[in-house]
Amino acid sequence: MSATTAAGNAQGGGETPRLPPLRDELRLEPGPTARDGSPSWTLADPVSGRYFRIGWAEFEILRRWHLGDPAAIAARVARDTTLRPTNEDIEELAKFLMKSELVRGGGEKSIERMLAQLRASRKSWPVWAVKNYLFVRLPLFRPDAVLDFMARNFGWIYTRGFLALTLLSGLLGFYLAARQWESFAGSFVYFFSLEGALLAFLSVALAKILHEFGHGVTAKRFGCDVPTTGLAFMVMYPTLYTDTTSVWRLNDRRKRVAVAAAGMAAELGLACYALLLWNFLPDGPLRSVVFIWATSSWILTLAVNLSPFMRFDGYYLFSDLIDVPNLQERAFALARWRMREFLFGGGAPAPESWPPRMRLILLGYAFGTWIYRFTLFLGIAFLVYHMFFKLLGIVLFAVEIWWFVLKPIVAEIVEWAKLGTARRMGKRAVLTFAVFGLLLAALIVPWRASIDVPAVLGAEQRALVVAPVGGRLVSVDVTAGDNVAAGAALARFDSPDLDYRLAQAERLAAQLRLQAANALQEADGAARAQILRRELDRAEAERVGFASERARLTVTAPFAGTIMEIGDALTPGEWVRPGEALAVLADMSHVVIDAYVAEADLARLTADASAWLVLADPQAPRIKARVVSIADTATRALADAELASIHGGHIGVRPGPQETLIPEMPVYRVRLAPEASELPQRVAVGTAWIDVAPESILRRVWNIVLGVLIRESGF
Fold first, then answer.
1. Nearest to residue 33, comparing CAs of 250, 211, 208?
2. Which of 30, 126, 326, 543 has the fewest CB atoms within 10 Å around its CB?
3. Spatial CA neighbour of 483 closest among 585, 581, 567, 555
4. pTM for the full predicted model
5. Is residue 433 a contact partner of residue 425, using CB atoms and an 8 Å limit?
6. What pLDDT is recorded for position 264?
7. Which helix (H) or strand (E) holds 325?
8. CA–CA separation, 50 vs 25, rounded Å?
9. What stretch of H or E contains 39?
């Protein structure tokens, strides 16, 4: 029936009512029974296509809305029913009706109110651009005629016989595909091309159209209107949508669940028939299309639509299954109330009364949705950042983070501040504000006067001794811990191939020398002798080169020091390739500490600053040190492999050319001089704590953000 008919037409006494009249076209229809067994009604606005679920109290108030005065309405409801509404309850309902534009305009005050609402609804062009960039709907056509035809002629799709046939087709298709699984799985290869990618896109688009028709036809079968079908863009990603808002008129919850699930059911049915059809089609585009329908299309649909945390099919399914209309708004309101009560106390009434089990479900859903959305929108922000050129990517990234992540947090913090000023603060509120004050102070106050960075203690002069040439190991003349002089032999190799080539070069040189001498004895041999001497020079150069190469088969110490390590598996008789590590030589008479500082902390460092080295060995004492030098440029290749992430260290690296280790983030080497007299006579890894200029966490974050902006903007 009409809402205004339910309210009556008389305005009572000719006086101007204080309450604005309801719009004539509104309809008030019986709704489903509420969870507590009480009746409900649906207030339908056919112009905007919106539906509002109201309870018994709101229904009784609207029936007497024609009285125009809150006190008169409250008295009439109390006389005719067991309800006891207050003037405030009726005024709150009036505010809701006016905000939802469900009342008629009339009189100067009504016009002023409507103008105020219009001004409030207008948004500046930056806000309009942001909202339309984040989410916008483009209605394309009215599908009612098509859906009416399909609902009349395709009713057999909703029969049990068709369901059984679909399941049987899917099982048979899976059985046949399993028998040629390699061929089935190999179909993915076709899509790794431009033509294949385009075909996959079109296949998914057709499946999504079927998905939307599933919603629309099912809604039509239950007598619901489907006003529009179109495109929705969420962060510029296009998706189809079908407006099935009118399903809220359905009193049967199972019918609403059927409409919400119809899209996914349509794609699953398509997948069953596509899987069977794939087994009988020849190779080609059509077989590739049905392959997409049988695999990735329905998997993607379930992965996205089954989630109840976004307003897709899964949300409406979950809302209907637990019978909580407007699930997100009500769950979020309850979670905000619970959080505020936990933080500030005060005993404020809950926005709604729920049974304990349902309250836990709603709280879990609300907090789960917030965590899910935070993660999702953060990921979308990073994706947007990488999709566009740097400067625009940074702007859009900031918009995403502000709109979806920071703005709701800031709004809630503002509400907390209002609570603190509006209420008399109890012990819990005082404790909460004290904790937040301490956290804020920790962010703002520059208390961080030291930094901890990865460091390694070792000799100032260190060398990795490697095999200069390939050869067979004859002997290793040192062991770990030996002290050696500069030039002392460390290992000896031989090379039969090199010996043979050296002997060949010596024999060739001797022959050429003899031939050149004989040529000079001949009457006309001067020219020939000159040619032989040039060949002899080349042969001598080869001989000298081979001899020099042979001399390198004896590996010597480049400086005096201690053998710290001996390479593994250095057994006489083994063949060693060029560049293979033989030993680590270090001059432990001059020990230094090399620390690696991130770029963000570099400006806070000063020469001669104090530092402490804490070794990884918990039994080793701390070592006092001071800064002696700071590198001017970032480390291009990490010399201290012990600190690399691939060896269990804390500096992220990636493999570079010639087996070098390239840091993932800019780090600068800072050399520290230890002040202790007794130091470990070995390479030791640890953490260096270096005194720096104090800096707040907030300033550090700002410096990092500013550095990223400057670097990524190309300034």
1. 250
2. 126
3. 585
4. 0.64
5. yes
6. 92
7. none
8. 12
9. none
Q: How many CA atoms lie within 13 A of 456 on its CB side?
A: 18
Torsion angle (degrees, nearest 10) of CA 184, 186, 188, 191:
-120
Distances (CA, A) of 135 to 232, 394, 411, 546: 7, 19, 20, 75
Q: Residue 224, SS3? A: coil
In terms of residues, how long is the chain? 715
Task: With residue 404 as reference, give the H or E element that holds it.
Answer: none
The token pair that represents 292 in the structure block:
């997409």
Closest to 153 in 3D by CA, of 205, 213, 226: 213
Instruction: With beta carbons less than 8 A apart as the criterion, state whether 257 and 308 touch.
Output: no
Q: What residue spans of 64-189 are helical by DSSP H?
A: 70-80, 87-99, 107-121, 125-134, 144-153, 160-178, 181-185
- DSSP per-residue codes, 425-452: --HHHHHHHHHHHHHHHHHHS--EEEEE
Tokens 């690399």 locate to 644
Between the alpha carbon of residue 355 and those of residues 36, 352, 359, the distances in Å are: 10, 10, 6
> Nearest Cα to 122, choosing from 131, 133, 111, 109?
131
Other CB atoms closer than 10 Å to residue 285's CB: what's the count?
13
First to last CA, the chain: 66
The whole-number pLDDT of residue 236 equals 67
DSSP symbol at 546: H
Torsions phi, psi for 367 (to 5 deg): -70, -35
Q: Radius of gyration (Cα) for the chain, nearest Å? A: 41
Consecutive H or E run containing 646:
none
| CATH entry 2.40.30 includes domain 587-713 | yes
* Of 569, 570, 575, residue with least CA distance to 497: 575
Q: What is the pLDDT of residue 610?
A: 92
> Dihedral through CA 572, CA 574, CA 580, CA 585, nearest 10?
-10
| Dist. CA 123–CA 117, nearest whole Å | 12
- Return the bridge partners of 554, or none: 492
pLDDT at 15: 47
Q: Which two tokens stand for residue 268?
A: 């699953």
Per-residue confidence (pLDDT) for residue 412, from 0 to 100: 76
In angstroms, the CA 593 to CA 102 distance is: 76
Q: At what angle do helices 390-400 and 697-713 cross, to 10 degrees?
A: 140
Instruction: Tell me the two tokens of residue 3.
Output: 């809402």
What pairs with residue 139 in β-bridges?
A: 230
pLDDT digits (tens, 9 = 90+) for 5-62: 555 544 444 444 578 888 888 888 888 877 767 788 888 887 776 778 888 888 899 9
Residue type (1 letter), 383: L
pLDDT score for 174: 92
Supply angle C-alpha 587, 589, 594, rounded to 5. Answer: 75
Supply the pLDDT for residue 132.
56
The tens digit of pLDDT for each residue in 171-222 reads 999 999 888 887 777 766 566 667 777 888 888 888 988 999 999 999 999 9
Domain boundaries, the chain: 3-122, 125-323, 324-446, 496-552, 587-713
Q: Which residues of the chain have pLDDT under 70?
A: 1-17, 36, 49, 105-135, 187-193, 235-236, 388-393, 419-425, 520, 523-525, 568-569, 658-659, 708-715
